[in-house]
Amino acid sequence: MSRNHEAFTRAQKVLVGGVNSPVRAFKGVGGEPLFLRRGLGAHVWDIDERRYIDYVGAWGPLILGHAPPAVVKAVQDAAASGLAFGAPSEAETALAEQVCACMPQIEQVRFVSSGTEATMTALRLARAATGRDKVVKFEGGYHGHPDAFLVKAGSGALTLGVPTSPGVPASVAAHTLVASYNEPASVEGLFREQGADIAAVIVEPVAGNMNCVPPAPGFLAHLRRLCDEHGALLILDEVMTGFRVARGGAQALYGIRPDLTTLGKIIGGGLPVGAVGGPRKLMQRLSPEGPVFQAGTNSGNPVAMSAGLATLAALSTEGFYPALEGKVRRLTTGLEEAARRHRVLFSTTAVGGMFGLFFRAAPISTYADVMQSSVPQFQAFHRLMLDEGVYLAPSAFEAGFVSAAHGEEDIAQTLAAADRAFARLSRAA
Ligand SMILES: *Cc1c(COP(=O)(O)O)cnc(C)c1O
Known about the structure:
Blueprint: H1 3-14, E1 36-40, E2 43-46, E3 51-54, H2 69-80, H3 90-102, E4 108-112, H4 115-130, E5 134-138, H5 155-159, H6 170-173, E6 176-179, H7 184-194, E7 198-203, H8 219-230, E8 233-237, H9 249-254, E9 260-263, E10 274-278, H10 280-283, H11 302-315, H12 320-341, E11 347-351, E12 354-358, H13 367-371, H14 375-387, E13 390-391, E14 400-401, H15 408-428
Parallel strand pairs: 3-13, 5-6, 5-7, 7-8, 8-9
Antiparallel strand pairs: 1-2, 2-3, 4-10, 9-10, 11-12, 12-14
Helix pairs in contact: 2-11, 3-11, 7-8, 12-15, 14-15
Bound molecules: pyridoxal-5'-phosphate (PLP).
């Protein structure tokens, strides 16, 4: 009996499903989740000492790979000076300055401890600023687990087949309007009927929680225009894309001006940090300057701030993003070539340091396109790749991530493994 099986059995007794976040449980692919003990660079080791090339990257934060020395050192130094203060410290200001420098639309920042808190705060702020209650989100879009966003949600909610969660009061869900990503007419229709009640549109600028779907040309600009026409705010949820698709996030890559931006994942460099940011006149509505209440015991934690600062510092290296993108391209084109060799219907998407894998033909643009991708084939591929020592996100509805620590050798090993996996899939078909 493997240590992993023992660990999972033990965990299931005292942790719901043996995990603390649902997709980790491997229900999207079957089998048991890997219990990880160690990570270094592009690799993780499970408790049976098996090594894997990691494309999960802690679900997004680890753009520098596991345990990057500069970040570890910054964290150690910060920890030795005190784990928490609950009072202002200069690291908070320094990280906020970095965020404002990377994303010029952001003049002021409020730090929180998760992406969920960031989107929850952004929505409250948008409602207060507009005096309206309704919010438009997209089917398959995931914004953490505030009640308002658990309507046709992506990520774990989609993987587990419960995109609309029980426990969300109907009176709350009634304020959430759902549109179709990359289909501007669906948003136009909502604005036409209920424009006077819509406080905000919230969107993942690159959809990353229903696999990975880039925005269609003009889609984000269209949202900006609709929001302006109807006096609604545009919230770009860049929890995943911020610092991932470009240093300035998707807003820099696509040239889109959001009213509010939500951040998480990379901004904490692996420690729990989230943020909401925007123009001063909007942000000043938050307590203590304004009446919109928001607070957090752990917000701006000095150790977490130090991890974020050290991570962001590394991203300003000349050529960082072109190098990252190059690796992603070699991975995705290599995977497509391997699939083609074995006549497996397969396509990929890629933006900056993130990618998507689809067991169907290109192009992928809408939620409906994503849903036509074969889940059983993904599950089989995932299992084969795991056996080969390649750790992909355990769901057909999650984006994959490449880090700066992934070397050419890692990509080559992954492609060799994929070639064997596609061959097996093809024989099984
Ligand atoms: C991960 C994610 C969230 C939620 O962040 P948590 O830190 O898990 O609460 C919100 N929005 C997007 C786009 C995400 O990818």
